[in-house]
Amino acid sequence: MNLRLYVSKREDVNDYSQGHYIRFSIVDLDISEKYPANFVCMLPKHMGSNGKSSNVFSNMFGSNSAELAKRLLREALKTEDDSEVKAEIGKRLRLLEPKPPVLAKCRDCGKMFELEKRRFKPKTCPECRRKRRISQE
Taking the complete model, does pTM exceed 0.70, yes or no? Predict the structure, then answer.
């Protein structure tokens, strides 16, 4: 498969859909040279995490879909001339980068630990919480 990105801009944008008018389509140049005959799927804005395939793109390309999306976006960034499209490609590339873990300092021992995704963030590390639970029993 000879995959490329096809960028389309909608000109009839309403006020409520500002910023959603640049779309990225995945095309296969082996099928045909002209769009839409070579259409494969749309490039999603957010990729599914933890191996979940929540869109057609992830279902089609499986585990290497994030790497494929990055490669296609980088290739399109080199060939694109429009500044708005370049900005959107950069934004999509930043969304594909993994976020670093959020670290906090334990108030008891002073060791750095990774915060859990909870509503109320603990101020102590898991070891200190475990020690406190054992001492209370």
Answer: no
